[in-house]
Amino acid sequence: MANNVPNDYRDPYWTNLSRMMEKKHGLPAGLLVNIVQKGEKTNNDKQSPVGARTVYQIMPNTRDLFLKKYGVDAFESPKAAAEVAALHLKESLDRNKGNVDIAVREYHGGPNRSGWGKVNNAYASRVLGNDVTWESVEKKVGKSVAPSRSTSKIEIDALLKAYDKSKASTTEAQKPKSSKLTVDQLLTAYDNNVEQNMTEEARNLRNQHYPYSPRSSCHYVLHLGPAIACWLRVWPATY
């Protein structure tokens, strides 16, 4: 392993290297970066009690497997380590139909799910950003549709978004329709009220001096105020 590389896993060198491998192997953007920055959180010179090495914490048996399969030695250089880590994730994604959550869990705990446990749950939550509390999700959507604790952040976000959208649609549908009348409806009501309460003599005088309908467009301003008042039973509908 080269000695002239940054040791701190938080150094931009490792972020840039991880992003390069994400693009090369078609991984979800940020996945390998999060493995280093949020999952492993281990400096390059550290070795775990079980022999895992580099910032990607690659196990000796994983190194041997990928060296035999791809001819890439994870312990040879930072680039080779990043390559093996990316290939590890890529194989898991292909095997599990693109399920990012399972790929992260397999990267950390291997394909045997019976051995994942709480530490593996915490690792996946850090990498995928599952920082929501399960109690808050269950309280919001109900236990019957709440996601399991192994659900990825992406899937949880999609569930909560769909829930909020459904709730908003239901609330909108339950809103009472507006009882406000349009100007046209008010003027119609005014005309009808005037006609019904007008005496024959008054009607003849009206037709003689004002041969137009009260709703004639040039008289909207004249009739709008009385119309509104009449509808509210405040203005007497008389001439």
Secondary structure blueprint with pairings:
Layout: H1 12-25, H2 31-40, H3 60-70, H4 78-95, H5 100-109, H6 117-128, H7 134-141, H8 153-174, H9 183-197, H10 200-209, H11 220-231
> Strand content of the residues, in percent?
under 5%
What structural class do helix, strand and pairing data support? mainly alpha
CATH class descriptor of the domain at 12-128: Mainly Alpha
Please tally the helical runs, counting DSSP H or I stretches of 4 or more residues.
Answer: 11
In the predicted model, the low-confidence regions spanning at least 5 consecutive residues are 214-222
Oligomer state equals: single chain
Summarize the main sheet: none
The H/E string reads HHHHHHHHHHH
Gross geometry: rod-shaped
Short account of what is shown:
With 239 residues, this protein is mainly α. The protein contains 11 helices and no strands.
How would you describe this structure to a colleague?
With 239 residues, this protein is mainly alpha-helical. Among the domains are: 12-128, Lysozyme (Orthogonal Bundle), CATH 1.10.530; 183-231, no CATH class. It is 59% helix and 0% strand. The chain has 11 helices and no strands. It has helices spanning 12-25, 31-40, 60-70, 78-95, 100-109, 117-128, 134-141, 153-174, 183-197, 200-209, 220-231. The protein is rod-shaped and about 110 Å long.
For this entry, give a set of tags.
single chain, 11 helices, 239 residues, Lysozyme, mainly alpha
